[in-house]
Amino acid sequence: MNQVVDTILGHYSVRKFADKALTEETLATLIKSAQAASTSSFVQAYSIIGVSDKQIREKLSVIAGNQPYTVETGQLFIFVADLARHHAILEKEGSDVSALSTSEKWLVAVIDAALAAQNMAIAAESLDLGICYIGGIRNDVEKVAEILELPPYTMPLFGLTVGHPDTKQEIAKPRLPQELIYHQNTYQQINTVALEEYDDQIKQYYHERTAGKRVESWSEQIARGLGRENRLDLKAFLEKQHLNQK
Amino acid sequence: MNQVVDTILGHYSVRKFADKALTEETLATLIKSAQAASTSSFVQAYSIIGVSDKQIREKLSVIAGNQPYTVETGQLFIFVADLARHHAILEKEGSDVSALSTSEKWLVAVIDAALAAQNMAIAAESLDLGICYIGGIRNDVEKVAEILELPPYTMPLFGLTVGHPDTKQEIAKPRLPQELIYHQNTYQQINTVALEEYDDQIKQYYHERTAGKRVESWSEQIARGLGRENRLDLKAFLEKQHLNQK
């Protein structure tokens, strides 16, 4: 198609990197790319913490479930939903700060951060770097906030580890068939036949990748992963940070 | 740099399109690109509604504040945080559905949807199409859900209008200076000198783009836009949809 679409479609998550820092030039390109993303009403409601300090990476890695690829990597970025700058500005301008605690503004900050992160991910992959999102930092947001010295009106959302890949994935992981994700004009109930076919496809995919050790359909994976509550401290943390309150 | 980074850095929002539908091939590329994004634990917790029906577009446009570029466009996509498929699977597998109502799973769905959307945006721009995010659909999520026939465990997040641009923007809108977005290892408090410089830069930007009609700094824009609460029905809507409850 073109280099952009090829890069996007060629994505796979990398979980083993050379222990080699990114150059300053690459870092600058990645941050600039993140910032070029759309932002709701130009609020730019996110921050990016670039964690080069190995001790801090180690601490975050323990929280995320001891993932070595958050320590041995080119750079570990933590994306933060951030309304703290706006809070400072509103106070300075003598404006009411209560809007910052609404679900709407919380949503704006999360979406702004995610759009920026995905721009960074695509830019990184175009530079032959590999990436992996690290949702595991949400295992203990309170602790992450403490380590990164995050102020009120912020929340750490996820990490993005970016580095020189030490592995290459050969088979792309098949996504849901288009008809299960894409709806024409109005929402369509789940097509169970298409889902069953997809379940078989995913079983086959894991079978091939693990030499028969893992045989699990997508539905089984979902039932296993989403069948239990986790990270129930998020709500209290958001309250403490004055976010998502009304 | 390369075509990917050039595309990302060349982004600007388009608000006037030729009234010409996207081809099936382009649509397929955009959807495939969206689906190639990272997804938390492979849950793929989003749906995309492609609204080609002009009457439905008109209805959504009224909600979003009468934006003609949601009607006259190549395609209007609505990105939906979607745990309804997972609900159906959990019920079928006899698993507990309560985890779907946690803040954590809500966050996963929002981030999944945003990453997919940004992939679509970049892919579209690489095909010489223009894009604009439409947060305005959150002016009345209840009504949008009714129009699009959304089931429980879903929420419409934003629109993405994609089409053949009828205008071209010459000056890129300057983002916050890197030091205000990017932090080294730990969060840094706002640098007020850098902020003042940026405020001047944005004033100048608006002055040039509006031939002197609009003179507003970023801080002033933030104080004006974030100084009042809006969309206070989101919380009740999420509750009704069994999302973000604990």
TrEMBL record, chains A, B:
Presence of keyword NADP: yes
Q: NADP as a keyword?
A: yes
Q: Which InterPro entries match?
A: Flavin_OxRdtase_Frp, Nitroreductase, Nitroreductase-like
Q: Where is the Nitroreductase domain?
A: 9-164
Q: Which GO terms describe its molecular function?
A: oxidoreductase activity
Alphabetically ordered keywords of this record: Flavoprotein, FMN, NADP, Oxidoreductase
- What Pfam families does this protein map onto? Nitroreductase
Q: Which domain of life is it from?
A: Bacteria
**Family, per entry:** Belongs to the flavin oxidoreductase frp family.
- The molecule here is called Nitro/flavin reductase
Q: What organism is recorded for this protein?
A: Listeria seeligeri FSL N1-067
